[in-house]
Queue: 2 jobs
Job 1
Amino acid sequence: MAQSQKPKFTLYHGWSSSASRKVRLTLGEKGLAYDGRVIDLRSFQHHTPWFKKLNPSAIVPCLVLENGKILVESNLINEYLDEAFPNPPLMPEDPIDRHEVRRWSKYVDDVCLPAVQKPNWSKSMEPIAKKWSDKELQEHLDAIPSQERRDLWLRMARNPFKPEEIEKALDVLQDMCMKIEAYLKKSGGPWLFGERYTLADINVAPYVFRFEEERPGKLAPLTRDWWARVQQRPGFKAGEIGGYMFDVKRGIDEAMPEPKE
Amino acid sequence: MAQSQKPKFTLYHGWSSSASRKVRLTLGEKGLAYDGRVIDLRSFQHHTPWFKKLNPSAIVPCLVLENGKILVESNLINEYLDEAFPNPPLMPEDPIDRHEVRRWSKYVDDVCLPAVQKPNWSKSMEPIAKKWSDKELQEHLDAIPSQERRDLWLRMARNPFKPEEIEKALDVLQDMCMKIEAYLKKSGGPWLFGERYTLADINVAPYVFRFEEERPGKLAPLTRDWWARVQQRPGFKAGEIGGYMFDVKRGIDEAMPEPKE
């Protein structure tokens, strides 16, 4: 944390989680200090009873406010932060553009997140899950509140993603990068919606980071320049996005101890 | 349309579509006039090339503005309408409450929409789809841009929802109604977020309507009173929500002619 204020928030997050990275970028851009609690996703900390008491959806990130209110869903946390701490503003002024930023963020969540999970989980979760006995697997699955997540873990344990599935997922991220190029062409830059850096830029940035790691050098010209600019934002440094396997390892090393009840 | 102003919008919608109903309720609450174009979902009008040119996602509702801009996604259309036409305001003032309205609307979309599709599609789509030959089925599937929708049509045609699946889906809607009860208890009413009628009330209303049709008389006391109040809103009448099979039939009778290119 580079910020100097007294922390207002506690952020439960994963270093390698794209959704957590989005929120760290927004906190960084706003210059908001926070107490970070690192959740080790690989040891299932987010599926433990104490975390599910905090957040029944059992997902990161999860932002706890000073008054104890708990916010989840990265796009909606970011929109909260922008409304509660308006400087600098991270949404366009025009209602049509605001609609389009929300639609873009929903696309990133609905389409790009399931895509990035394939290379990510293959690297970080599969080596662990495939070693489980059937009994261990069942215990792990029983702790997961969402069918979608249960399916993912079951796949990692018994039927991991094939290389062609991972390539197809990376094609989805490549298509995302082409959409960024189209936005930049239309707006004239320097950001997706023109002169103002917005949540549209922030919410997609962690996915571009992962795409660049997996298929380096493939960004189209406007997107390449945009991406260089994103990485020069002060908020980007504060967001502490590292190489994927570096951040997975960091997540293990820095995992918070399980709180005593 | 009870409104008297000159229409500002063209709304492509389905009478029986819950997402379309949400947007009609918001237009009604704001007193905004619109040209309605009824899309017959049963004859696949939303999968025709001319409609996909308008909206590549091939879903209703779809709101076309005076300047030609096309908005999709019912929650996000409603938030646009609230920002562009602020009277009466349909979002709370407090940023935390605003976050929670968005999260509630996302829950309705992610959880209640897939649930309501089971009884709805069994009634309206299954009788049609099951008559298709394999060749006809394939032609229909090829026109659908989303895997999720292809899966739904494939199920309707060859492996329709079983009664126990439909009951389980209605349990999801019953759980939604219990959440409404909890909100009303917490806020003290008369609306989910207190004194102000908001998008949280509007976005869930079509789902409560369907639940009441399928399992009449099951609403808890606060929810029953809230539901009576919702139906007395002037915007509710303008939204023209009819019985499900009545609206399916109305959708066929009033379907717009395919435009000549």
Job 2
Amino acid sequence: MSEPRIRMAGFAGSLRAGSFNRAMLRAAREHAPDGVDLDILDLTDVPIYNGDVEAAGDPEPVTRLKAAVHGADLVLIATPEYNFGVPAVTKNAIDWASRPPRPHAWDGKPVAVMGTSPGRFGTVNAQRVVRQSLTHLNAYVLPQPMIVIPGASGLFDDDLRLVDPPTIERMTKFMAAAAGWARRFLGPGGAE
Amino acid sequence: MSEPRIRMAGFAGSLRAGSFNRAMLRAAREHAPDGVDLDILDLTDVPIYNGDVEAAGDPEPVTRLKAAVHGADLVLIATPEYNFGVPAVTKNAIDWASRPPRPHAWDGKPVAVMGTSPGRFGTVNAQRVVRQSLTHLNAYVLPQPMIVIPGASGLFDDDLRLVDPPTIERMTKFMAAAAGWARRFLGPGGAE
Amino acid sequence: MSEPRIRMAGFAGSLRAGSFNRAMLRAAREHAPDGVDLDILDLTDVPIYNGDVEAAGDPEPVTRLKAAVHGADLVLIATPEYNFGVPAVTKNAIDWASRPPRPHAWDGKPVAVMGTSPGRFGTVNAQRVVRQSLTHLNAYVLPQPMIVIPGASGLFDDDLRLVDPPTIERMTKFMAAAAGWARRFLGPGGAE
Amino acid sequence: MSEPRIRMAGFAGSLRAGSFNRAMLRAAREHAPDGVDLDILDLTDVPIYNGDVEAAGDPEPVTRLKAAVHGADLVLIATPEYNFGVPAVTKNAIDWASRPPRPHAWDGKPVAVMGTSPGRFGTVNAQRVVRQSLTHLNAYVLPQPMIVIPGASGLFDDDLRLVDPPTIERMTKFMAAAAGWARRFLGPGGAE
């Protein structure tokens, strides 16, 4: 009997057309193991969180974001790092999907975090604060391997396809670990 | 000879009309020592950071935000906490004002951070990550006293005026410390 | 067929005879669900980490600590908080047990973290940095519920027995969650 | 009239005889600007913090540590990083010197933090948590420049003398900034 397919949803914490983190998500899809589907979300029209907007009813892009997180077996977050911290785009998506408080879309949800940025320390700080928020929300965040990629620009070709062999190898291992992590929490005793 | 006036600029990390953190800024202005002016910025129209938008030229609300940070003797940040982290509104304002990298508006800038939120731990996590980003940017962040106010709703009246006497006392001390901190870095040897 | 027993090992990040965190471990044992054994380690004679000492051969208390972490189905850490951070006792135990790098005792190990301290914010900061180190070490740290207990002194009787009913209830839920977390990672597909 | 001399006290968060961080302190002394004295403390005999030991009276090495922090115009901390966090040696010294709570040796004390470790991210995590504890203690921590040195072993000669020219240049700038930072807080209006 074959294993069930793993449905992942992914989003990148950057709105730039040429985002390296969105390119990382495409590479993640390309190098995912068999049996894994990755749906890449578009956060362009998700407004910045505002309690008054929420009270008037979720905007449609927010509704789609929440549904995607709810429905996924694992959420894959690719985040840049700005100023030793998390970009507004990444945190905004996490915060919207955490509403309303109970039950929310992150509760018991397997998550894997990765990131790339031009700086020297990659995204070690951004990933740390993302993990802390997700832990608070009772998401199950894959601890290792950690994909922290500094110096993003040399790893992709002109079409933003990941072409650096060692990074491809790390991505392949990361996606295998993410798929295994999602499987741990599937079905009875899985994400509730 | 009298001491020079201290020009502070403040912003709140919430867009809600009834924001307690904006109310905190108004209370900060009310209870500031003599000789301190506090200009409260409106972040409503600051778009979420996007490198493509920036490349096309700063939107006008961003230009105003940067000018306000540049021109202030001290920047006062009042931030809520979302999910053990910083709200997108707060981080977005910090990130926009950090661009372009050198020289940027935070370099050598005195800053004081405060916050209130309904949760049990006030804003201790949000303030921590805000401070880390500002430290990275070489801002001079007042270390203590820390204003972390949990359970915001009981402290304000129906017009969102701070009416809780112990909190007013803490605010008064905090603003005196912030003014003293700003004065340390004024003039020769001050913020460059 | 009955479920296998869960063997937990626990340590407290305080050496004081009257440690509230050690008292928390005893309360954890008392209020653990059926089928859970908790062995409480004594860190008194674990020396402060020193690479030269390690190179000469692990002192016996270190050998025992590592064996206990290796052999446990879940490690329970009860930590105080000092100065918004982790006490040396807690971090020292984590660091010794992380040596040598590969394979080390924390790799794939389920862990649950709790803590109590007299301060206003309980141990939210200490737990955060403990979790970050453990995540780096690929331990599987229970995300929620979080047991952060401020104002420790009122919760225990003169014999340091936990007597506060709401705290007992939270402890009971926490231990049930910890046992369930350990069970997730038992056996095939479990901690490797 | 000449400027007053700056008396710095420094300690390293490692007890190894061949510690790179202690070597960093010696390099800091060698490349300090004129007018700066740096006294390097030995933490070898500082016991791990224990409230019962403290209640019986500070051990002599603790008394010396506290006096050195109290008497310095600036404290220079060189810390390794263990497991994305602070080593016990570093945190233990900070915690002892923070006792008793008021007044304590860190209150209003200028501090500069640096660190080197073999890992890829240098000591960015260790420095972050050290800074957070010091901020809580109202120390005035130099925000930038940050000396984070990964891959320590290639930078020193067999006698552990810093010989890497770019690192020497960064150290020279760092010590000039630390001296300037100490001078800001000297005298009236200085550290209280």
